[in-house]
Amino acid sequence: MTYDVIIIGGGQAGLAMGFLLKQKNIPFVILDENEQTGMSWRKRYDSLRLFTPRSYSQLHGFHLKGDPKGFPDKNEIANYLAAFKIQNELPVHREKVIKLTQNERKQFLVTTPNKMYTVKQLVIATGAFHNPCVPKVHDGKAGFEIHASKYQYPSQIPNGNVLIVGAGNTGVQIAAELSKTHQVTLSQSKPMKLVPQNIAG
């Protein structure tokens, strides 16, 4: 089958784009390396909870069950995305893209382990944080080191003091969780900006 558009990545952005293309009857396919929709969420740390309320985490009017003002956890989002895909009959192929090129006609050549697609237009919806960065900032004497992408639960972390480098959403959530069992220091490069949960009532 010939596609006008290939979407690489079957998460929120890829599924949302697929929904709109289907509404316009544009031939497309979504390529995603995970074994099932929502799996990238399930792989994250156990206590992960979104910082965005359910009412703002929905796709194209597809209802996300629960308190609209509450914050969904990772499994809720994984289940929601899987249901969204099924409900809207979106074509998601379980294939990992390993190479992108263009031919002399400016068409995109999308290579997976088993086939090559030729397509006019391409949407990259893979997200931005797939390659963990662990800077060489210490003298190698740290007894234990783990990147947030490998963290799952507090018992992974040995007893003692813990330094968390980075005070974004992930760093703050992990710090809050570990503070119940460890002495935690949260390190950041800039002053933390606190945004109120409710504005003007």
Tell me what the structure shows.
By secondary structure, this protein is α/β, with parallel strands linked by helices. The chain has a four-stranded parallel β-sheet with strand order 3-2-1-7, covered by helices on one side. Strands 4-5-6 form a three-stranded antiparallel β-sheet, with no helix packed on it. The termini are far apart. Strand 8 (161-165), helix 4 (169-178) and strand 9 form a beta-alpha-beta unit. The model has no long low-confidence stretch (mean pLDDT 92). It has helices spanning 12-23, 39-42, 74-87, 169-178; strands at 5-8, 28-32, 92-94, 99-102, 108-111, 116-119, 121-124, 161-165, 183-187. Helices cover 20% and strands 19% of the residues.
Write a concise keyword list for the protein shown above.
4-stranded parallel β-sheet; 20% helix; alpha/beta; 3-stranded antiparallel β-sheet; 9 strands; single chain; 201 residues; 4 helices
Topology summary:
Blueprint: E1 5-8, H1 12-23, E2 28-32, H2 39-42, H3 74-87, E3 92-94, E4 99-102, E5 108-111, E6 116-119, E7 121-124, E8 161-165, H4 169-178, E9 183-187
Parallel strand pairs: 1-2, 1-7, 2-3, 8-9
Antiparallel strand pairs: 4-5, 5-6
Write a concise synopsis of the structure shown.
With 201 residues, the protein is of the alpha/beta class.
SS elements, strand count: 9
- Major beta sheet, strand line-up: 3-2-1-7
What does the largest sheet look like? Answer: 4 strands, parallel
Order of SSEs, N→C? Answer: EHEHHEEEEEEHE
Query: Structural class of the secondary elements?
Result: alpha/beta
Low-confidence regions:
none
Query: Treating each run of at least 4 consecutive H or I residues as one helix, how many helices?
Result: 4
Overall mean pLDDT stands at 92
Apparent shape: globular
Task: Tell me the fraction of residues in β-strands, as a range.
Answer: 15-25%
